[in-house]
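Weekly structure sync, notes
Attendees: PL (lead), two postdocs, one rotation student
Agenda item 3: pending single-chain targets
PL asked that the sequence for the first pending target be pasted directly into the notes so everyone works from the same version. It is reproduced below exactly as submitted, 87 residues in total.
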Amino acid sequence: MLINYITIIIGLVAAICTTIAFFPQLILVSRTKQTRDLSLPTFILLTTGIFLWLIYGILLGSLPIILANSITLIGCLYILIMKVKYG
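Predicted structure, written out during the meeting:
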């Protein structure tokens, strides 16, 4: 039982770290509308991967995977839309 709680805590801390790490890029794009230096293929691949992680988390019923990837997917989609709109 303790191992389950420790596993969930580690997953939540990892999810928080990786999601927060994405926010500076999101804020910068939101403020400046500058996406010229961002790679479109990279963000397409990243967004696809995050979507698949979200599906994986849903199938497993893993709260840390679901939360982290839901939030990050929204941010990635926003940046991807901005990249297509502003180049």
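Discussion points:
- The two ends are 50 Å apart (CA to CA).
- Residues 53 and 69 are 7 Å apart (CA to CA).
Action: rotation student to compare against the earlier draft before next sync.
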